[in-house]
Amino acid sequence: MSSPTAARGATGLVLAVLTTLAAVVVGPSGASAADASSEVYLVQGVPGSFVDIELDGREIESAVATKTVVGPLDLPAGEHTVTFTSTEWSVTTSFDAASPSIDVVLHWPADPAQQPDTTVYTNDVSPVSAGKGRLTVAHTAVVPPADVRVDGTVIFANIANGEFVTADVPAETYPVDIVPTGGTSPLLGPVDLDVRAGALTRVFAIGQPTDGSMDAVVQVLSSSRGGSDAPSAVDAGSAGLVAPGRDGAGQATRSSGPVPGALLAALVVVAAVMALAGRGRRPARR
Amino acid sequence: MRPRHRSGARRPAALVLLVLVGAAIGTGPAQPSPPHPPEPAAPTASVEPAGIGRPARSQVAPQPPRAIRLPSGVSMPIDVVSTGQDGVLDLPTDIDRAGWWDGGSRIGEPFGAMVLAAHVDSVTDGIGPFAELLRVRPGQRIHVTGAGSAQQFEVAAVRLTPRTSLAEGASIFSVGGPPRLVLITCAGPFDADGGGYRDNLVVTADPVGPPQRRDE
Description:
Number of domains of chain A: 2
Number of strands of chain B: 14
Oligomer: heterodimer
Distance between the termini of chain A: 57 Å
Distance between the termini of chain B: 18 Å
Number of domains of chain B: 2
Shape of chain B: elongated
Strand order of the largest sheet of chain B: 4-5-6-7-12-13-11-10
Structural class of chain A: mainly beta
Helix content of chain A: 10-25%
CATH architecture of the largest domain in chain B: Beta Barrel
CATH class of the largest domain in chain B: Mainly Beta
Strand content of chain A: 35-45%
Radius of gyration of chain A: 28 Å
Largest interface: A-B, 93 and 87 residues
Radius of gyration of chain B: 27 Å
């Protein structure tokens, strides 16, 4: 895969991804009072089209360019209707705003069709551990099932149109490409993908390779922090029962069997006496 | 967590419908007529529900470990534990329970260390199951299970490190690097006058294949 167009495409993509990243980073939304609402993003994933968007019968945006993410729109939970209209087609679908955060994506199906599809993805902004970001890659392009590779190694396998894969990964920049499942010639990329700590990074692969319109929409949503920091110490013993010379368990030289019960009992007594005498350590540290 | 939809049948049907609707509307993409926006197509047609993004079949839902089986066959339940304000991992007091550090990896994550630790002994309860790690050898198998998945690991390295400088080997707790299991307990000479064990024993084990799904 070394044709000049591919190289140009990749460069364009890097730029595009960076631009999108800059544009779409969304801060943590204020704690929404009611649970019965949903933050809804509308993603324009059809290359080469400008679309007008109507939500529940009311026009909310016009001439929305490819890769634009509209929102968040704070919608009451329940059924809504969205219409995307270009000069060549008009797609009306209903969706259920059932989760706190969702993406409604306009994209072409896997096989050539007369009009795009709409697919709803739930945004998992549940806590992510320190040093990690959550990466989700969705297949919304006119290609057969695909693999996602980092540095040539498949990390997500066999994703079909409409499907996604997700994982919490160390926050860093990954050289990512998308190849047909089992293949090696990139349909998209390689591109440097920046996964930010404490955030959900969503990638939508869009377009089709046959007309060179493969591209990616990247959306970054803040999530809360989960887990605790790495410990500086692990204190995992308090009686000295396995110290060298005590039970022989010392190191790898020990050959068999548990400590004889009598010896163990004696050691426990000794340790208890020491503790009582105030010279020992506190029992069973936590 | 995220919805699991076992579709496959639904979408082709939806697609067929779309095609039929498209056919009913009549024409293929007639030459676009630039000057005017098009009439909305068939406004009275019934509204299709949007597709639901589904996880790929290869998707593994990561899960915290719940139990560990040591090479001897002894199993221990696992609690979720955090690092305290003092930087010390807050292990279960019970020597028969291990703690999983909640900042580390879960079963099924593609990167990073899954860190489990347990007391090697206590004054009240004697010697715990993790004491067998003092004589574990590379190549021995360790089995970790979660709510719906399980994974085998093979011991790759065993080393002693001074307890006061455990965290200096940064890779022990790293969220990066290949997926691996790290077991920690105490070992080495014991200072009864307050110092306790001098060392930590750190066992690193590599996955033997990907996690397997299991029914609870």
